[in-house]
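Propose amino acids for all 200 sites.
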């Protein structure tokens, strides 16, 4: 039987990136129900509702849904998650996504860009885990992440962020810049000093 494109792709990633977790058991047999998608779509727009309110929206070039473990795989995906009151919680995009819709756990790969509305935070990375229920975002300890929040831009490894405590941290190789109003004023003054005198 022809191997499933997404399932093979994810097996390679999960073998290489030990820090990333996923709900699916890739050791099951090739003919197992878990290895065959219940639905497969191209240019798909998927929306999940909870208590008659939009909970998740996912648009993807290719999308597969698995019945046995509430898993969805999507390629070249754009997505949005919503809070219980219907307000937009998170938006973003990535090359590949694995979503466990029951546990609301999402694993993202490739050119990731996340926009966390409530935290006024933007995150870019190559691999991330996002738990919607706990509002936690984590990366592997060897995965580089760039974060922009207000006037702060930081890059580091071993990233974690909490939407509950509104805090974030890196565990290794952190560097960044902080733009303050004084810095902006000094930069403007320096630029004015460099303007040549027209009489000269």
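Proposal:
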């Amino acid at each position: 039987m022809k191997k499933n494109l997404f399932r093979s792709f994810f097996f390679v990633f999960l073998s290489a990136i030990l820090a990333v977790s996923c709900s699916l058991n890739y050791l099951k047999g090739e003919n197992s129900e878990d290895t065959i998608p219940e639905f497969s779509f191209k240019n798909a727009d998927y929306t999940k509702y909870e208590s008659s309110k939009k909970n998740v929206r996912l648009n993807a070039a290719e999308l597969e849904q698995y019945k046995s473990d509430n898993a969805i795989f999507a390629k070249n995906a754009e997505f949005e998650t919503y809070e219980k009151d219907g307000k937009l919680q998170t938006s973003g995009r990535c090359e590949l996504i694995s979503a466990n819709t029951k546990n609301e756990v999402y694993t993202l790969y490739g050119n990731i860009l996340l926009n966390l509305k409530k935290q006024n935070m933007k995150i870019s990375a190559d691999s991330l885990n996002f738990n919607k229920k706990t509002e936690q975002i984590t990366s592997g300890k060897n995965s580089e992440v760039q974060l922009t929040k207000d006037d702060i831009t930081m890059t580091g490894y071993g990233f974690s962020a909490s939407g509950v405590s509104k805090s974030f941290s890196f565990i290794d190789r952190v560097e960044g810049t902080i733009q303050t109003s004084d810095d902006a004023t000094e930069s403007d003054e320096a630029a004015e000093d460099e303007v040549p005198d027209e009489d000269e």
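Confidence is low (pLDDT under 50) at residues 1-29, 185-195. The CA atoms of residues 48 and 54 lie 6 Å apart.
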